[in-house]
Amino acid sequence: MYYILLLICLLSRIISSIYYIEDIDSLRFALSIVDEYSVAKYQPHFPGYPVYCFIAIILYKITGSLAISASLIGGLSTFFIIYFSLKILKIKIESKSSVFLILITFFNPMIWILGNRYMPDLMGMSVALASIHLILSGKKQNEQIIGYLLAGILLGIRLSYFPLLILPIIIIFFNNKKYYVPIISIISGLLIWIIPFVFTEGLNDLITVALQHVSGHFNDYGGTIITEKNIFIRLKFLVNTIWSDGLGGYWKNRNLITIIISLLTISIFIKSKSYKVRIDKNFKIFLFSCLLYLIWIFFFQNLIYKSRHVLPLIVASILIIAQYQNSQKSKLLSLTLPIFLFLLTFNLITSHKFGTSIYLLKNHIQQNEKEYILSNSLINYYLKNNGIESNFINVDKIDKEYLFNSIDGSDNIIMIGDYSKIFETHYNIDLDTTFYHNPYMNRMWSEIPLYSLSLK
Length: 456
What we know:
- The relative contact order is 0.11.
- Strands 2-1-3-5-4 form a 5-stranded mixed beta sheet.
- It has helices at 2-15, 24-34, 50-63, 66-88, 97-106, 109-114, 121-137, 141-154, 163-174, 180-201, 203-219, 231-246, 257-271, 281-300, 311-328, 331-354, 357-367, 377-384, 400-407, 420-423, and strands at 372-375, 391-394, 413-416, 427-436, 447-455.
- The chain has 20 helices and 5 strands.
């Protein structure tokens, strides 16, 4: 059964592969794989994710396709998320109760979309889940050692997921007479990747980049509580991303299918009042770990534009839904919820294959070349690295007088994003096209206006 499930996970993600760069984060990972792995050049950005990139580079050398390589990692990660979810809930794959958990995980919209992205989130989640299970439930010391090794390796895949492991490690550490075993195992897992990482990147360069990135993440571009101070907005996006992006629930202007998904999901918890649900001790620890992780991302991650940060909370929610549903043994709910999740996810992956707004914008510019492109640094960086040749001007960080001297009265100008106030006294500004994609497949740059500028 597991072999069949693995094959289905791999084939389904390969079929839905995306053959374009969907955003700036994906671009940095793509460049690290097909061009040059260099944290100093932000290919990718710090902390470098060396374990993910190493595996992706190997797969790329074998397949010759960035899209297929990412989907193979995504399919394998999806399989292990399902595998260790079953283990955590102590459900045998041969049992009927496993079907519901497998289906709602397999068709989960966020898990599927991330399974095709050129990013390490899904791989990190699968390794974190494996580590938690082996640390808490390992019957032999060797199994726990593997769990600790994976904890160290996780730091080289998805550093921000490590808070998930803090509670399980602490609990087992203080209950382990051989206290040195967890410490040595975690350090060993860390050294597996950090030695070649430091050797290839250089210790001094890594320290410099690390300090710059940590400062930037917390004080500038990271979307933390320091730069996005409004608690209510952060709370709104936290609920929105978990409920809508992650579980397919209804939100304003969403597909009507999401109303049905919402009603079905809510009905599981309403009906559960009639049943006694037993929650395993280790499952409780996992849930408390997710609560700790929730606090971490609420204050120190970008919840507004990057919904992928809630992935561990989505996996926890899926396990809770499956636990309550299995206690009821309702065949109707077991069938209908996965069906409507499939319909929603199919719509999203179809849109995902069509392209994001920045990708569509890039294609439009290639067919209508302009002498000057005015935008912010990230959009300019994306376009430059996707074959667009033009004079790029970063509007956010340029002196106004110098800007007009640079343009030198040219009429062959486009502006990406609305910077009308800077140019309205000298130029006529006309909206050319607005590029749009479904924000529930990717919240970054879901709507991009393109303007043409002509001298007055």
